[in-house]
Amino acid sequence: MAGPAALLVSIEHQAVALCTLRAATAPRPPHNAPQPSHTQTFSASRPGPAWHSLGEEMEVSQPGGAQELGEERKAPWKSPMEGDKGGDLTLLSPGEPRPERLARPGPVRCETLREMALLSKLSRLVEATSRLVQVERTLLLPLLQQHPLPLHPKDSIEFRNICSHMALQREGQQFERDLQEAHQCLKTIIEKLICSLAVFPSDSCIPVRATLRQILQNLLAM
């Protein structure tokens, strides 16, 4: 039999594991190489000085070409079609990206179904651990002050160690194995708590057992 002190030790180890799991769920940078920005892409696609020189020679060789060339130099951001429409255009400096280019989404990392399944399992593990710590602090701890229960702090220590090792991997087969072990270890902790409450001599443990069963059910949900 163990009292509140043993439960507090278990809660402490579980809280450390919870912080580690939350850190493991932080977004990872994409694997693909960084793509050029929209500004760089737009600047690279603009015609170079040689194109302008050729265009200027063709414009000047025609009657009135010098006047038209002067007008183009005053407004290089306007195309001939835009000029004919006479629309009110926002002034853009040369090389500045247009708003429609900025609105286009950049490249995103596509996750595989396997990665999505692992992320879902990790999220359930985080949620179950958080709920367990909350129930132990608010509901189970007062019960232990009335009657000692058989507890197993070593399971919480093992759970903390597995989560710490898993956070160092972040991906790969070892990460999947650690995630499975952490999942099984937390399941064992909850099941042992439910069994311990079965010998409690008061009906006040019934809500706690029901809550623990719900946490276990959510943890095992597919």
From TrEMBL:
Spell out the InterPro entries in the cross-references: DLEU7
Q: Name one Pfam family in it.
A: DLEU7
Q: For the region Disordered, what residue ranges are annotated?
A: 27-104
**Ranges of biased composition (kind: Polar residues):** 34-44
Q: Where is the composition biased (Basic and acidic residues)?
A: 70-87
Q: Any idea what this protein is called?
A: LEU7 protein
Q: Which organism is it from?
A: Rhynochetos jubatus (kagu)
Q: Which gene encodes it?
A: Dleu7
